């Protein structure tokens, strides 16, 4: 297992490999062994290594779910637990990894998409306490990236779950990355009611660097994300 872990982390760190090549090579390892190693990648300080870990974790979780759905649920619950205050951890990469897995596996999306939304929702009155609001700005950005990703591949499911209202406040977030990701998610949802709010950010020139599903970083701006969102609505 130690040898597998070292080999898998070396693959993830090999920037000479495209994401597609990386995932192909990763598929040669048992899914359980790969998941174990990839948890370490999610905590790495190097941005590209950490984000490629997210892509690999999502793809590996989907592969695990195809073979053993209950084993995949256990990993999803571990990611959820890492975001709980009682876990003693912080949950770096957990929302992003869950979203990537749900994009790649419909069964996981049907079971866990509502949990990703819950991290932007405050608790309501009994018996509708469905919120697990995360206050840490970086974790919020992780959830927003996850919803931007998931809304691009499971739009109908998120609309069915009532996504939208919990996203609107983040258009005024102090962090440019949060605003940009929020614009992308709202645009993917295609909600006409959000057009005016997006229009207000069209002139926001704050630069952002975002990781894409293709495994690369792109340099853009909040305003460009808002304009692109309006075009998709």
Report the count of strand segments. Answer: 2
Elements, N to C (H/E): HHHHHHHHHHHEEH
Number of helices: 12
- Give the helix level as a range of percent: 55-70%
> Mind summarizing the main beta sheet?
2 strands, antiparallel
Structural class: mainly alpha
Enumerate the spans where pLDDT stays under 50 for 5 or more consecutive residues. none
Oligomer type? single chain
How far do the termini sit from each other? 48 Å
The fraction of residues assigned to DSSP E strands is under 5%
Radius of gyration: 17 Å
Tell the overall outline: globular
Strand order of the largest sheet: 1-2
Mean pLDDT: 93
Task: Walk me through the structure.
The chain has 12 helices and 2 strands. It is mainly alpha-helical and 233 residues long. Helix 3 (31-41) runs antiparallel to helix 4 and helix 10 packs parallel to helix 12 (222-232). It starts with a helix and ends with a helix. The model has no long low-confidence stretch (mean pLDDT 93).
